[in-house]
Amino acid sequence: MSGVTSINLVENALLVSIQDDVTDTEIVELQDTLSNRIAKENVKGVILDISSLEIVDTFVGRVIAQLAGISRLLAADTYVVGMRPAVAVTLVELGMYLPETRTALSLTHALSQLRRG
Fold first, then answer.
1. Is 68 in contact with 101 (CB distance < 8 Å)?
2. What is this structure's pTM?
3. Would you identify the CATH topology of the domain 5-116?
């Protein structure tokens, strides 16, 4: 991936930062990399940081849903952090409720929830 997204291990979770200008090709690569890292590192959760997203469309909504689905199938809980109010409103208007994900106000909050199990 060319710096558009990043995956970092934080405690027992993978922090995935999704940038505004992510492309289809990078998403496919991200899905492969994320699924391999979840399996290899046996993490408890995946935290999707979308704080750099100012707007969303159906593509970004599908990306979040797909990453959460992959994580769930590999037994990792998914949290979305950094959601701006406008992004939340847009996701609801697009009919994207993201049932496989949980939200947290911050990385700290998501990690705290993951620690509780």
1. yes
2. 0.89
3. Transcription Regulator spoIIAA (3.30.750)
